[in-house]
Amino acid sequence: MADGMDPAPILDEIEALAARRRVKVEYVSRRRIDLVARTEGPQGVVAIARPVPETPLDELCAPVRGTQPFLVVVDGVTDPQNLGALLRSAECAGVTGVVLPRHRSVHLSPTVAKVAAGAIEYLPMALVPGIPATLQRLSAAGVWTVGLDAGSPRSLYGLPLGAEAVALVLGSEGEGLSPLTRKRCDALVSIPQRGTLSSLNVATAGAIACFDLARRREP
């Protein structure tokens, strides 16, 4: 914690939580906080934690507390701000797991963690060699893969989907879904738009789709 910060209830809460968990708290200069945080505009508190563990893909395909899996598959998103915002929306919508490719995609970083606002602590994540092959594995495990594609004539809102196992597949910021990923999806849908612009930001589109699918999964 940065030395000399103004008193605040949230700082007292952090200190109390640390004491209960027997976590050592050090008071250091603001300059040292800035160096350790590696993010823009750190707020005076840095936690040193273990790496977020990977979850095997097969575990993500299993029911969670009696509910069929609701996954998000990220295909080539490279902006950490977008990934962080997407993870935050996914967790809030009740997504049970996230699939990230090992290559040609952003991974967890200080920026992603900050923008996600705690979501990475609750979302199990699997790292896979490639998304197209992973979609085949998901389909074989009974998970319906739905790709979000701005060029699809089929509307997201008309998707005949209930509470079955589903994976929402999101593409990169510029190109969207790769050709092979698009081919491997069980269904391709788009979000109907009324304006002039051709597409939505991937984090915004992902949030809309996550909550629409979550609505369909309610009892």
What's the layout of helices and strands?
Blueprint lengths: L8 H12 L9 H8 L19 H4 L9 E5 L5 H14 L3 E5 L8 H7 L8 E4 L2 H10 L3 E5 L17 E5 L8 H6 L2 E3 L12 H15 L3
Parallel strand pairs: 1-2, 1-5, 2-3, 4-5, 4-6
Helix pairs in contact: 4-5, 4-8
> Helical segment tally?
8
CATH fold-level name of the largest domain: Alpha/beta knot
Instruction: List SSEs in N-to-C order.
Output: HHHEHEHEHEEHEH
Strands of the widest sheet, in order across it, are 3-2-1-5-4-6
Instruction: Tell me the total number of β-strands.
Output: 6
What is the overall silhouette?
Answer: elongated
Structural class: alpha/beta
| Name of the top-level CATH class of the largest domain | Alpha Beta
Overall description:
By secondary structure, the protein is of the alpha/beta class. The chain folds into two domains: 1-48, no CATH class; 57-216, Alpha/beta knot, CATH 3.40.1280.10. The chain is 35% helix and 12% strand. The chain has a six-stranded parallel beta sheet with strand order 3-2-1-5-4-6, with helices on both faces. Helix 4 runs parallel beside helix 5 and helix 4 (80-93) packs parallel to helix 8 (202-216).
List keywords for this structure.
Alpha/beta knot; 2 domains; 6 strands; 6-stranded parallel β-sheet; 219 residues; 35% helix; alpha/beta; elongated
